[in-house]
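Bumping with the actual sequence this time:
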Amino acid sequence: MRFFTFQDFTNVFKKRYKMFVTIFIALMLLSFYANNTFLKDKLDQKYKVIFDYKFFYSWTTNSKNSIKFNDLTEKYEYFPFENLKEFHANYFELIYNFNIDDLKIKNVEKNKYYKIAKSFHFDTPNFTYPNRRLTLIWDNAEDAEEYLNNLHKKAKKELKIVTQTFYDKEYYTTLNNLNEFLLTFHPKVIGEEIKNKFKLNDQAELEEYVKNFIFEIKKNTKVDDDFFLRLVLSKTEMTRNLDVFFKDSAIMLYYYYLGNKYSGLDELGSKNIVLMSDLSNFIENLDEFLPKFRYSYTTVNTSYIYYIEVLLALLLSFLIVFTLHLKDNEN
């Protein structure tokens, strides 16, 4: 067995340098074709845009938003999300799914986001992972940021639809329940019981007494009609028994006040009463509960691809020429 010397290699090139140059040029032309077809998008990439959530993940500790969110889940039995952690997981899953949707329509004319969607990178499919990082490498930093923001907006809109649907269902259920209560006990009946219980002489004294009572409650506790409505509606078992209902003086006064102010379902709807104000505030200020990110971008250097192509062309040209030389020697 004999080892090849440097002189052996130089002799090969002296005999076959024209073949070497021809193969090298052919391979470089092939690289040129690749750079202008399937590698074009890769080579055009100039910026890496990152939305980093690592520093702002509020559900990992007992943050203000986490406490507020837990209050909602405890208050509303069928709230769509168990906790803030699940809410965030749904948010990131929606971003992921909307990106997948952008990849389904490959016609660029019908889907302007197809190409940029291919450059989107999700750090992990584990949507409850605490440190999220969304990365997009593209030739224009503004376009990349716009696409990421577009995914955020669509995810936010979807979450808002879910919570709004839940609110609407709760709202109209509450109105219907209240209307049933108003039909069960007419305010006039309750008014007579209040007059007898508090020794009031006439209707004017009754109205003045109820007015002062409600005014003091609102003044001292800073509550609104929403509170009174929910309080009355929570006494379902009481309202089924007249004797039990009449034992609670405060509930009677609340009921009389509400029954006179909102006399029927149409009246309830037309006055646009505020029910579940905490839930409506949550929907209105949904941005406060969504994950916050730190935006950054860096330039991307794709010149290494050209260096790799030249190196591969040289190596392949050498291997082909040297292999042919060995075969000729064998013959």
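The tokens above came from a reply further down the thread. The mean pLDDT is 76.
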